[in-house]
Write a structure and sequence with these properties.
Length: about 170
């Protein structure tokens, strides 16, 4: 099929606002983590209260809250400068994705440790949520993306951002 070029090479990736999509993906990851966490909340409400379940529930809540705070701060910054495609947006996106990916991994671990294998074997919806989230957060490339963030922070353009530790 004949095609007509609509921009330069990588123009789509460099268009204003493109980076904000990476924050949107992280928000989807968080939604998946909340779905996984729901199984823990439901199980905790059905069981006799115990300290270990309460500790897992508290850890999951604190983790989810931290990710939500990061996303809200990013959303506020994006709303204030929707066309920002500079270093500030690059650093913000890398940070938020790292935070949310870490929270998702923590939620998967905490819920798995709290509930054991039962829900993975006998609750197909929960098992599918866990599988989907596990795959989906692989969009964050772990240490490679953290190294990218670190490199940004050490660069001349990103250095001003790092100096304030994102206050």
């Amino acid at each position: 099929m004949p095609a007509l070029p609509v921009g330069e090479v990588d123009a789509y990736l460099r268009r204003p606002g493109f980076l904000h999509g990476g924050v949107g993906v992280a928000a989807c990851w968080l939604g998946g983590a909340r779905g996984v966490a729901d199984a823990l909340m439901e199980a905790a409400r059905r069981r006799e209260p115990d300290q270990l379940t309460a500790a897992h529930l508290g850890a999951v809540d604190a983790a989810l809250h931290s990710a939500m705070c990061a996303l809200v701060a990013a959303a506020d910054a994006i709303d204030a400068a929707p066309l920002d495609g500079g270093e500030r947006a690059v650093v913000r996106t890398a940070r938020v994705r790292a935070v949310v990916a870490d929270v998702c991994a923590r939620v998967l671990d905490e819920v798995g440790r709290a509930l054991g294998s039962g829900p993975l074997c006998h609750d197909p919806e929960h098992a599918q949520r866990v599988a989907d989230l596990t795959v989906y957060i692989r969009q964050h490339h772990a240490e490679r993306d953290l190294a990218y963030l670190g490199t940004l922070l050490l660069s001349a353009a990103g250095g001003a951002e790092a100096a304030q530790w994102d206050r």
